[in-house]
Amino acid sequence: MWGCLIKKVIFRFKKEERILESCSWQEQFKKGNDLANRGDHVEAIKCFLVTVKHNPEHSRAWNNIGVSKLCLSKPEEAVTAFKKALRIDSNYRDALHNRALAYSDVGELDSAMDDLNRAISLDPEHWASYKHRSILNQMLGDSEQSFEDYIKFKELAYGN
Fold first, then answer.
1. Which whole-number Å values give the CA distances from 94 to 31, 61, 85, 122, in the listed order?
2. Which residues make Cβ contacts (< 8 Å) with residue 131, sequence separation at least 6?
3. What value does the mean pLDDT of the chain take?
4. Most CB atoms within 10 A, among 6, 11, 43, 151?
5. 129 neighbors 116 (Cβ within 8 angstroms)
6. Which residues of 128-160 are buried (b: 16+ CB within 10 A; e: fewer)?
7. How far is CA 140 from the centre of its chain?
8. What pLDDT is stored for residue 16 in this prediction?
9. Of 111, 78, 110, the residue nearest 95 (C-alpha)
10. What is the 3-state secondary structure (H, E, C) of 100-115?
């Protein structure tokens, strides 16, 4: 009985894998984004992995794998994915910002600060980096810099 059930599960998995593979990597990337936006990060990662299998230099797919890993409370795995995105495009602001969030989750606050500083140097208008740097500065005990970053975040995000 169990052998038959296991064979059915394996067959079903292989069939689903073939269905995933039958779509172009571009379609898989779009589907992964749609799934991630709906909160289905496990399935989104599967789509992004198909994307990078066919296009290993797709930095956005690696970044999105990292974001989904963060959403699944797997910050160490997220850091690995963000590093892959940044090896492809070292000036990828969103990957730097997102890796900073993952570094914060694993307690690597200096690395997180380095990434946020770099993201801001690449895009001085990126309000999310100021917001998260404000939080990080507060965690590190620099209330003055935290307040400055918070004001900059508010100006950029809300025009105040």
1. 20, 12, 10, 10
2. 149, 150, 153, 157
3. 90
4. 43
5. yes
6. bbbbbbbbbbeeeeeeeebeebbebbeebeeee
7. 24
8. 52
9. 78
10. HHHHHHCCCHHHHHHH
The Cα diameter of the chain in Å comes to: 67
- Cα separation of 160 and 158, whole Å? 5
**Rounded mean pLDDT, 40-68:** 97
Instruction: Please give the Cα distance from 86 to 63 (Å, whole number).
Output: 8
Q: Which residue is associated with the tokens 């999105």?
A: 64
Q: Report pTM.
A: 0.85
Digit-coded pLDDT (tens) for 57-106: 999 999 999 999 999 999 999 999 999 999 999 999 999 999 999 999 99
**Domains with residue ranges and CATH for the chain:** 8-91 (1.25.40.10)
Residue type for 34, please? D
Q: What are phi and psi of 66, to 5 degrees?
A: -60, -45
